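Before drawing any conclusions, I looked closely at one protein's amino acid sequence and its backbone structure tokens, quoted below without any editing.
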Amino acid sequence: MSNFIAVLSSRLEMIFDPQFLAATLIEWLLNVIVAIAVFVIFYLLWLLVRLILRFSLRRKVDETTFSFIETIVKFFLFVVGLIMALDSAGIKTSALLTSLGIVGLTIGFAARDALSNLISGILIFIDRPFVLGDLVEIDGQYGRVDRITLRSTRVVTSDGRMLAVPNTEVINKTVASYTNFPNFRIDVGVTVGVNEDLDNVRRLLLSLVKDDPAFMAEPAPRTVVTALNDYNVAMELQAWIFDERRHVERRFELREKVFKILTQAGVELPFETIQLQPVEVKLKDRGGDQPTALRKKDVSTNDL
């Protein structure tokens, strides 16, 4: 028992010895400085690698592939730099990695969505349903693809909002791309009266896109009847445009032109209305000077 107390006392004296504390603190600070220096070196290395990638691959691969390569290299250098920085600080990374492996299995079950997004992000880069700058519609959300990360796809909408769509939704849901093909058709619908001359309406509609340089001559534009309703005839102007990225703007412009040319030509554009007509109701008087609805009834005590 006395030996144990002596050993404990000597250890406490050594721990609280000013010289030992100073030496330990200096050693710890040096390790921290070395670790920070290692991490800074890897950060500068990443800047150099990114610069080399931009000069060597920017013109050889498209923007989407370049972004994917850049993300993978950045992640790799960050992990290696972090491990070497921790090792320089005196932290045994082998034991740490073993512990992280065990903990990672536990976290993996709790972070299934994050892992699914990571795998889906890699599949997007491989499958390439769209590239950066494409106009897409994902689950009803329309916009321009601004960035593709390993977790989400960033889409900028027409009203300036940034949407972060999880990559699992991109993989599992329907994605409509508006910029994968050189030709894009816009359709503008209109309803005319049942007594209108359809050939005349067709001529008016086709005149809007015939000489417009924004629209293609081949495939040729056309006007079709889409429905025969009770009180109107539904028609649709179908025209192909050169710049598919401006299809929303072209559709707005063409819809306004359709309305103007048809109204100026006197074409009836019927729409469902509800017309209320006042009906005069007369009440017959069955006795007395007052109408039945307004006549007062005398109540006597015999009626109670």
Q: What stands out?
A: The first helix runs from residue 2 to 15. The chain has three domains: 16-110, 127-177, 184-264. The longest strand covers residues 184-192. The CA atoms of residues 4 and 74 lie 53 Å apart.
